[in-house]
Design brief:
about 35% strand; 5-stranded antiparallel beta sheet; 5 strands; about 90 residues; alpha+beta
Length: about 90
């Protein structure tokens, strides 16, 4: 069994904007819209996409971070290569 843990830090900037850092692996911002959907923007300006709600956005970013951590630990892939291979 494989157990990977990640620490999520959320900082509220305003009612509709929060920054996040997930175990120094992925960081960026969540922008909540009036319909409660959330746009996820990674540092560097990469728009990861939209989620239906705040909890969904956290789950989505957590899944990406865990996938990346698996790749990094198993074969040493860096984030720019991971993004190019799996997110595009």
């Amino acid at each position: 069994m494989e157990v990977l843990m990640a620490d999520l830090t959320l900082n509220t900037v305003s009612k509709n904007l929060a920054t996040f850092n997930l175990s120094d692996v992925i960081s960026g911002a969540f922008h909540r819209h009036s319909d409660n959907s959330v746009t996820i923007v990674l540092d560097g300006g990469y728009v990861m996409g939209k989620a239906d709600c705040s909890a969904c956005a956290i789950e989505k970013i957590g899944s990406v971070a865990i996938q990346y951590m698996r790749e990094r630990f198993s074969c040493g892939i860096d984030y720019s290569d991971y993004k190019r291979l799996y997110l595009n």
